[in-house]
Amino acid sequence: MKRIWILLTVVLLSQAGFSQSLERSVISSVGGSWTNGSTFAMDYTVGEVMVSTLNSANNFLTQGFQQPFSTMVVSVPEESSEQALIYPNPVVSDFQIQLVSPDQGDYQVMVYDMLGQLVSSSTTRLAEQSAGIITTDVSSFSTGNYFVRVVYNQQLVFSGKIIKIQQ
Cα separation of 78 and 80, whole Å? Predict the structure, then answer.
């Protein structure tokens, strides 16, 4: 019995030198480090939950997990007073917008990417006896989703979505 206690004591004492230490670590898909070169360094990760935030007139401190830089919401209004049809969708090179009851005049077609940035803007003049079809070329666009807005006399007449594919 005495032998077992001695063996157990030796094993426990030998393991004491190899104990675990807690190291700060984070599992995240995006992040990095920033330094001003000499006096300040900051590590950051994107998308973690916050515990609490304290602020004063000149200072801002988030305690707990690290925070993303900003929250961004992208939207393109989709209210329109006129019905239209976009085809083909998905699109390879160009698409048509067929307006149901178009007026004579200039129609502006604006295409936005998923970040809400304007990537294309064109103006098409529809004649009095026009079929109301507007063609827009997107062959140079990257594959992805886009928002389309049609404006007539500074009024939104149609908005919709297209999917650009490669073939």
Answer: 6
pLDDT band per the 50, 70, 90 thresholds, residue 96? very high
pLDDT digits over 123-140, tens only? 999 887 778 899 999 999
The answer to whether the beta carbons of residues 42 and 35 sit under 8 Å apart is: yes
pTM of the entire predicted model: 0.53
When mean pLDDT is compared across 25-29, 35-39, 56-60, 71-75, the lowest value belongs to: 71-75
Q: How far apart are CA 4 and CA 102, in angstroms?
A: 95
> Does residue 142 contact residue 164 with C-beta atoms inside 8 Å?
yes
What's the token pair of residue 138? 């997107």
Terminus-to-terminus CA distance in the chain, angstroms?
A: 79
> In 40-71, which positions are buried (b, 16+ CB within 10 angstroms) versus exposed (e)?
eeeebbeebeeeeeeeeeeeeeeeeebbeeee
